[in-house]
Specification:
Strand content: 15-25%
Largest sheet: 8 strands, parallel, barrel
Strand order of the largest sheet: 1-2-3-4-5-6-7-10
Number of strands: 10
Structural class: alpha/beta
Order of helices and strands: HEHEHEHEHEHEHEEHHEHHEH
Number of helices: 12
Number of domains: 1
CATH architecture: Alpha-Beta Barrel
Shape: globular
CATH class: Alpha Beta
Length: 283
């Protein structure tokens, strides 16, 4: 499989996308592309629902983050779910813990999966988070056990389950983690988190903030000559493509640190450029 073919199936994260950005995304991305609406601590439900509605109208598939610890009550979850499914036709969520103290009854993502009655509310599929480089505050053994619990609980409720990883700058680490995941018997589709094209100082800042420590040293040293320009994940995509047969069902999931429209253009252009090279070679 070529890198372009491997990269054809991707999703993208959008943080507080403006109306103009959503319009541009509808022009750049293929219809039905999944756009994840990130959980912002102080964003009102109206903003989240509005973004999901606008993405749906633009021909895209809104996937909304639900941050368990930020939910003030069970009613707050049910209210936002009712609006997301009713107004925006949302059928997919990414259920995360949210790196804050619990504001209400949900201590973690598992609590939302267990008690949120998601399937009855119209949700058909959920994504759950994973961390190829570990989590800065959660032991690895607990991460692995929690992943198993979430998958089992959601599956028992009739929900489809996929996995979405934190971004990493190390193709080697991603591949090693995926192989370990598959060897443990987990076959669910994995959205591999990658940082879209962004200036290196910004990437380093985000990496420190998110606890992506394993690959940070390589990013800082190996890309030092590129500080004046944007750096994209081409090398990692090439590595993942070459190892695809060993990695099971995967897709790319772009974090849009350099801007959601710029990242969308990068992801689409990467696929189109590869397809153009293949067509030229066959002509």
């Amino acid at each position: 499989m070529t890198a372009a073919n491997f990269a054809r199936d991707f999703s993208i994260e959008a943080t507080r996308p403006s109306a103009s950005e959503i319009t541009q995304l509808g022009e750049v991305l293929a219809p039905g592309t999944s756009v994840y609406v990130t959980a912002i601590p102080k964003a009102a439900p109206d903003e989240t629902v509005g973004a999901a509605v606008a993405l749906r109208r633009a021909g895209l598939e809104p996937v909304v983050h639900i941050a368990a610890r930020r939910l003030a009550s069970a009613d707050a979850l049910q209210d936002v779910m009712r609006r997301l499914t009713g107004e925006a036709g949302v059928t997919r969520l990414l259920v995360i813990g949210g790196d804050v103290d619990a504001a209400g009854p949900y201590a973690d993502a598992l609590g939302v999966i267990q008690k949120g009655d998601l399937r009855r509310r119209g949700i058909e599929e959920i994504g759950i988070g994973a961390y190829p480089e570990g989590h800065p505050r959660i032991p690895t053994a607990r991460l692995e056990a929690s992943l198993d619990e979430k998958i089992a609980t959601a599956t028992a409720q009739g929900l489809r389950v996929n996995i979405v990883t934190q971004f990493s700058f190390s193709g080697e680490r991603i591949i090693a983690w995926l192989k370990q995941l598959r060897s443990s018997g987990i076959k669910n589709c994995v959205g591999i988190g990658l940082a879209g094209p962004t200036r290196v100082p910004a990437l380093i800042r985000y990496a420190k903030r998110c606890g992506v420590s394993t690959s940070l040293r390589g990013l800082a040293s190996g890309m030092a000559t590129s500080l004046v320009g944007n750096v994209g994940p081409e090398r990692i995509i090439e590595m993942l493509s070459a190892s695809q047969r060993e990695l099971g069902e995967t897709r790319l999931h772009y974090f849009s640190f350099g801007g959601v429209v710029q990242t969308a253009r990068y992801a689409s252009d990467f696929v189109q450029a590869g397809s153009g090279e293949k067509a030229a070679a066959n002509s």
